[in-house]
């Protein structure tokens, strides 16, 4: 007799529990613990399953011929750049992002461009009706006879649409809204997401048709559903942006057919989404005269060098706890730079409020921006502007050293292309040398601040 087991198991990591809990005790995921009451068959010698004979013989790798993969361009240069040149036939692509960032608008534009060159495209939406999609398509100019729309939430019906339309590109928005009648649980549950994704990926592989799946994200920014979803697909992209700015970035987190360090730039407009092929001037101010507290740096977004201007405002305060307000940079990084400046260069900021921001709403997360932030703080403290043609990049250590960073030649070439002839980088070695190279005298070391 098969022995029935009563218990609960996590669908993410396999953790077992005697009773149901809302959060897995191993991987700390919510809503992944389900009842496991399937019968366990005995593994005795008499009833052990016999392994079936393989359908095809295993061969040495040297005797196999590699399949020539080619990329089919979508017509959106920045999208193709991130994918490694375009969409590969039979590829499964997962696109995630915050609500309202523009995922559906981007994919509708990609579907329309594919339809313009004669491809049959099936766009399945489980969140919007076909009328709503039609209204957005009219606004963005995405109307074409070979672009087919369907509003469905049943997996079997979606597979029937694929058989009827025979598309060359399939877009599903989103994988968390579809459900299979053969699996228990509601749409968006771990079991449903796993079954829906597996079925659509099988269709992609069997028909050599690329499938683009839209994935919801949790409040932590991770893709909702089981982690298995990201393992099943071939490409994982993340579409990010700030609601207060029109700029959007498309990043690749996983790519079996291309690089994973490319970044695509887009801009949301009233008529849809527009690709930004050269975003270098978006993060620089248009001031004609030098202003104290500003310094340009060159950040790396994937393989792309982006000049960014850092702005700092330092004002006296009588409050016992001075304010440290940041926008676009990490507050902990700014606090560390202030401590290094005070200890190594005697730059007193304990009685002043410090405000640090970036132009254009871009976020600087790499340590290469440390030197530009430090020089901007020194410039604001002395109320002396830096040269208009100066750019700085380098990591600052706690000992006051300027450390080398990645891609220095690419950063220098981009800075010179935009007219920055004076480059302050890790070649200065120390902060006091960087201050002199930037044109700031040694009055800060004597405590002579006019901030």
TrEMBL record:
Q: Where does ATP bind?
A: 97-104
Q: Name one GO molecular function term.
A: hydrolase activity
Q: Which InterPro entries match?
A: AAA+_ATPase, DNA_repair_RadA, P-loop_NTPase, RecA_ATP-bd, Ribosomal_Su5_D2-typ_SF, Ribsml_uS5_D2-typ_fold_subgr, Rubredoxin_2
Q: What SUPFAM superfamilies does the record point to?
A: P-loop containing nucleoside triphosphate hydrolases (SSF52540), Ribosomal protein S5 domain 2-like (SSF54211)
Tell me which HAMAP family the record gives.
RadA_bact
Task: Cite the domain annotation text.
Answer: The middle region has homology to RecA with ATPase motifs including the RadA KNRFG motif, while the C-terminus is homologous to Lon protease.
- Protein name per UniProt: DNA repair protein RadA
């Amino acid at each position: 007799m098969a022995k029935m087991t009563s218990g609960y198991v996590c669908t993410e990591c396999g953790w077992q529990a005697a009773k149901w809990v809302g959060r897995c005790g191993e991987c700390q995921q919510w809503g992944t613990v389900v009842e496991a009451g399937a019968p366990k068959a005995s593994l005795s010698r008499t009833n052990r399953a016999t392994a079936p004979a393989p359908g095809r013989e295993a061969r040495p790798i040297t005797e196999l011929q590699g399949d020539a993969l080619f990329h089919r361009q979508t017509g959106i240069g920045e999208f193709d750049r991130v994918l490694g040149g375009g969409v590969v036939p039979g590829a499964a692509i997962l696109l995630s992002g915050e609500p309202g960032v523009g995922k559906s608008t981007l994919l509708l534009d990609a579907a329309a461009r594919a339809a313009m060159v004669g491809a049959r495209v099936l766009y399945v939406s489980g969140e919007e009706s076909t009328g709503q999609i039609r209204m957005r398509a009219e606004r963005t100019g995405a109307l074409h006879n070979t672009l087919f729309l369907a509003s469905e939430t049943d997996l079997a019906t979606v597979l029937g649409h694929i058989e009827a339309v025979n598309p060359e590109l399939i877009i599903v928005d989103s994988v968390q809204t579809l459900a299979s009648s053969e699996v228990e649980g509601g749409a968006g549950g771990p079991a449903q997401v796993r079954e829906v994704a597996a079925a659509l990926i099988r269709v992609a592989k069997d028909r050599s048709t690329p499938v683009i799946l839209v994935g919801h994200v949790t409040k932590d920014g991770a893709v909702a559903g089981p982690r298995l979803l990201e393992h099943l697909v071939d490409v994982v992209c993340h579409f990010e942006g700030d609601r207060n700015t029109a700029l959007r970035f498309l990043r690749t987190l996983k790519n079996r057919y291309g690089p994973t360090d490319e970044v695509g730039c887009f801009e949301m407009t009233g008529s849809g989404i527009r690709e930004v092929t050269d975003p270098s001037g978006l993060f620089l101010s248009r001031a004609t005269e030098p202003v104290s507290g500003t310094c340009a740096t060159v950040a790396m977004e994937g393989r792309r060098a982006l000049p960014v201007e850092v702005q700092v405002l330092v004002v006296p305060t009588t409050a016992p706890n001075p304010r440290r307000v940041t926008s676009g940079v990490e507050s902990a990084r700014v606090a560390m730079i202030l401590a290094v400046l005070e200890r190594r260069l005697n730059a007193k900021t304990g009685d002043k409020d410090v405000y640090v921001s970036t132009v254009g709403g871009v976020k600087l997360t790499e340590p290469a921006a440390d030197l530009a932030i430090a020089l901007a703080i020194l410039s604001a403290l002395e109320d002396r502007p830096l040269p208009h043609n100066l750019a700085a990049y380098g990591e600052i250590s706690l000992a006051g050293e300027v450390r080398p960073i990645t891609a220095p030649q690419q950063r220098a070439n981009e800075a010179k292309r935009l007219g920055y002839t004076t480059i302050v980088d890790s070649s200065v070695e120390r902060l006091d040398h960087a201050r002199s190279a930037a044109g700031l005298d040694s009055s800060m070391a004597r405590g002579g601040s006019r901030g």
